[in-house]
């Protein structure tokens, strides 16, 4: 007699699973290779930015008190006593009615407290000496980028777990991180099961299909921030699959298999878990696609049994594998980010289980719009091409009309969300 599986809610499944989520290890990477990684420490300013008062303009540094009387009709004349470019420091003393030619980014000379832009002065030479006329008064501090105006020493500029994007790269470089402390990528093995599977380069023959899940998951792992390890594809044979799964566990932090988790005669994953002595956390979730998603653990290593059906496999990864990966990358918001969007077309199918519709999210005149991205079946691959979101339709509902607000989960967002959504 076949074992009857009892579906649990997505929320319950996530909660059971997240008990096994833990932060991972740390490593150092060269700054040039840090893009796309996750910070393993808070990024704290160890100095003020800028670290000295500097000029935001090409012009002349002066003492503002000398220009108090300057007007269009009564310009005040300054003697130009020197010149400084960015990177240089003016070491001389600037006296009354003296000015120093200064370039953008150069440090303000000690006695000066204002800068006048080059184009607001008139310059002339007399007996080999350069003079400028200033026709307006300047306030103390005028046109000076003051030390610490951008960031103050001690400020936290990015939290541990932050995704390293170009802006973070700029800050890391600013604070001198030639080596960056990042979360080590968890190594995730992928095994595809199914006697019908061909390698990508093989020609199609009757009854066979190409193994697309492996490459889809590989890319999902990379998008989540992990390191994918391709462990091949296997025919539906219990002993072969058991040996491969067992052997792979020494090489990876977690393992994903696809296919073989349902109730078919060749669905061997449940038997493999039993033979390994793994504890099954759940093997039926009240969701569609991906109801057969199974998760087990063995010695605190997670084994994800994702569906063979591509869309079901895709959704299973995003809901269950992603938060585990992101937690290991120190991300405090490891789940897909949730938003509300307006449904661009009606979706009238009944939803006995919570449905995650692969969807395309767009902005239309400032409004967030969402529509299914194509054929909605768990076996579909075509709808994945344009999917950048999942529409969430709660179980026990039906009939979502165009124009209604629906929940959407963002697939390409680096920030993520806390649980519960
Ligand atoms: N009697 C029942 N049959 C099925 C049930 C059920 O409850 N009772 N559940 C159905 C649901 S829902 C799903 S989803 C699938 C899940 O099946 P498996 O996860 O065990 O996957 P397979 O049977 O191995 O394959 C399903 C489908 O996917 C194709 N496939 C498999 N691997 C790949 C791959 N690497 N790349 C691309 N496509 C792949 C495979 O050829 C099948 O067409 O079970 C239902 N059946
Ligand atoms: O797991 Mo299936 O995808 O519910 O159709």
Automatic annotation (TrEMBL):
Main enzyme class: transferase
Cleaved signal peptide residues: none
Any Pfam family matching the protein: MoeA_C
Cofactor field: Mg(2+)
Biological pathway: Cofactor biosynthesis; molybdopterin biosynthesis
Keywords per UniProt: Magnesium, Metal-binding, Molybdenum, Molybdenum cofactor biosynthesis, Transferase
Stretches assigned to the MoaB/Mog domain: 189-327
Homology family: Belongs to the MoeA family.
Its biological purpose: Catalyzes the insertion of molybdate into adenylated molybdopterin with the concomitant release of AMP.
Name under which the protein is recorded: Molybdopterin molybdenumtransferase
Organism: Paenibacillus alginolyticus
């Amino acid at each position: 007699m076949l074992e009857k599986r009892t579906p649990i809610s997505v929320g319950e499944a996530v909660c059971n699973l997240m008990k096994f989520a833990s932060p991972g290890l740390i490593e150092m990477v060269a700054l040039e290779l840090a893009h796309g990684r996750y910070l393993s420490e808070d990024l704290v300013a160890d100095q003020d930015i800028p670290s000295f008062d500097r000029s935001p303009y090409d012009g002349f540094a002066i003492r503002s008190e000398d220009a108090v009387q300057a007007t269009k009709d009564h310009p005040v004349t300054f003697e130009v006593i020197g010149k400084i470019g960015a990177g240089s420091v003016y070491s001389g003393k600037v006296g009354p009615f003296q000015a120093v030619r200064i370039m953008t980014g150069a440090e303000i000379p000690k006695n000066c407290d204002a800068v006048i832009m080059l184009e607001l002065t008139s310059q002339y030479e007399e007996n080999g000496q350069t003079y400028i006329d200033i026709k307006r008064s300047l306030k103390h501090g005028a046109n000076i980028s003051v030390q610490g105006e951008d960031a103050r020493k001690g400020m936290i500029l990015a939290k541990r777990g932050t995704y390293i994007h170009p802006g973070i790269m700029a800050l890391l470089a600013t604070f001198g991180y030639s080596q960056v402390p990042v979360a080590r990528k968890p190594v995730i093995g992928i095994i595809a099961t199914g006697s019908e599977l061909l390698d990508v380069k093989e020609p199609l023959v009757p009854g066979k299909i190409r193994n697309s899940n492996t490459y889809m998951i590989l890319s999902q792992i990379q998008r989540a921030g992990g390191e994918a390890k391709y462990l091949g594809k296997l025919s539906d044979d219990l002993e072969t699959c058991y040996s491969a799964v067992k052997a792979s566990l020494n090489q990876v932090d977690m393992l994903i298999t696809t296919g073989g988790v349902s109730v078919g005669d060749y669905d061997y994953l449940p038997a493999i878990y039993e033979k390994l002595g793994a504890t099954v956390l759940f093997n039926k979730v009240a969701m569609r696609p991906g109801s057969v998603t199974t998760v087990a653990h063995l010695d605190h290593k997670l084994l994800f049994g994702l569906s063979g059906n591509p869309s079901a496999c895709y959704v299973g990864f995003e809901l269950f594998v992603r938060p585990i990966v992101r937690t290991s990358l120190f991300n405090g918001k490891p789940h897909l980010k949730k938003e509300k969007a307006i449904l661009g077309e009606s979706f009238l199918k009944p939803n006995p289980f919570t449905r995650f519709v692969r969807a395309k999210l767009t902005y239309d005149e400032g409004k967030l719009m969402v529509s299914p991205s194509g054929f909605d079946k768990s076996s579909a691959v075509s709808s994945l091409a344009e999917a950048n979101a999942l529409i969430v339709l709660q179980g026990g509902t039906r009939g979502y009309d165009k124009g209604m607000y629906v929940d959407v989960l963002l697939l390409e967002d680096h920030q993520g969300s806390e649980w519960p959504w």
